[in-house]
Design a protein that fits this description.
By secondary structure, the chain is α+β, with helices and mostly antiparallel strands. It has 13 helices and 14 strands.
Amino acid sequence: MKTKLYVLYGGKSVEHEVSLKTAVTVLHSIDESRYEVYPVYITREGLWCTQPGPIAKDELTIERLIATPTFPDPARSIGEILSGIMALPGPKVVLPLLHGPNGEDGTVQGLLELVNVPYVGNGVLSAALTLDKAMSKQVLAQAGINQTEYRVYRCEEWTTDEAAVLRKAEDAIGYPCYVKPASLGSSIGISRCTDRGELLSGIREAFSYDKKIVIEREVNGREIQVAVIGNESPQASLPGEFIHDHVFFDYESKYMDKRLTMQIPAKLAEGLTSRIRELAVRAYQAHGCEGLARVDFFLDGEGQLYLNEINALPGFTNFSMYPVMWERTNGTAYSALIEQLIGHAVARHQNKQTLQYTK
């Protein structure tokens, strides 16, 4: 009997479009001889929409995947939808392809834990920690992993005394600096600031996306990325980097610039490649990650490494850095990588069933 693969995509996050691109690529790579694919589209308003049966590859386009009129009764509750599709006989796995809040932050993961079904990617705690940059930085500090100077500010602190927050940030961080919403990805809501005026507008923009922000000192250097996969014994890929001439690698630079080229493996000094891979695994384990994550570093002109952030659900189109790094590291094809991730999901779920609290 084929495994039923429930693919969650879309969502209320501002990263909705990124999720759709990921979903189309992943769905086209699924082995139909082994899996029946059941798309579950979450609209921008948060409605969960399902179809009555599996969908074939030749029907998979973004237009079809978001055509809610083709989904019967989209206003049903999440509980009704999940209980309906999970009642189908045979083995099941959920593939969450939801970027950002309400998908990558532990919320959906908690729901899937309650349903007691295998799902690809990180669990509740690791998903929540990695999406929240402020909490992640505390974990990294406790693990003794080097980071750039940063400060965290909450919206209440800002609305109470804007001038005090500006002054504290300037004294502690200085310019240039980056202002980021604490819990968002794809460089959305992030600003590079070189003076007080830019800092003021950057803080206001970041607070429009989140109630907590992070302000970081700029590291003048290269951004090196590493793909990590696995549960108890994770493995790190060869490091890679994008070759570009952008001062700030923002959303448009990442997704719209056709001139971007990947350098995999990244050209690094002898011994640095193994050091970066080791640190990536260490950071992955410190956050309790399972399944997959991409770990991003800064490398300055003095050869000093700073861990930037961990992305628990990195971009996953066939042109994204994560799958390409594995293809260049050990020849793993895109479809085979998805198979590995599903395998890790099933193994983790089976191990959990042996624990006393699950009985």
